[in-house]
Amino acid sequence: MFLSNYENKIDKKGRVSVPATFRSHLNSLGYNGFISYPSFNNTALEGCSQDRIEKLSNTIDLLNPFEEKRDYFATSVLSECENLQFDTEGRVSFSQKLLSHAKITNNILFVGLGKTFQIWEPKNFEKFKVMARKKAFQNRSNLKWENKQKGDM
Length: 153
Known about the structure:
Strand content: 15-25%
Shape: globular
Strand order of the largest sheet: 1-7-8-4-3-5
CATH class: Alpha Beta
Helix content: 25-40%
Number of helices: 5
Structural class: alpha+beta
Low-confidence stretches: none
Radius of gyration: 17 Å
Largest sheet: 6 strands, antiparallel
CATH superfamily: Transcriptional regulator MraZ domain
Oligomer: single chain
Number of domains: 1
Distance between the termini: 22 Å
């Protein structure tokens, strides 16, 4: 899983070191990099494995092939995806288009979200985190533990 937060600096050549735990998880899934695309909901980037983007693509494919919504999702997500490969030192280079969307200039924050992660400009994430914590508190009753079957203990 992708957990925790890691802040790194973008070097003069536009490269940034991906957190070792994120690289390790991606490597365990058989990947030497990840997919990134602009977030719909935030001034951030989404990061995920190839499997995850294929799952999203399959979900889009379930929509009616002649419906506009299908084109909207495919264009907004799949056409904006970039496949970022790790170099020998575990770094990736983000395109200026992705960095501009997230308003990232010098420092970059990797934020683990379980099966996916996000990439933020650190100060913007701090503002978002305050709001997210308030909303999570207000909606905490929506989280339910999965019922365990006999023998799962």
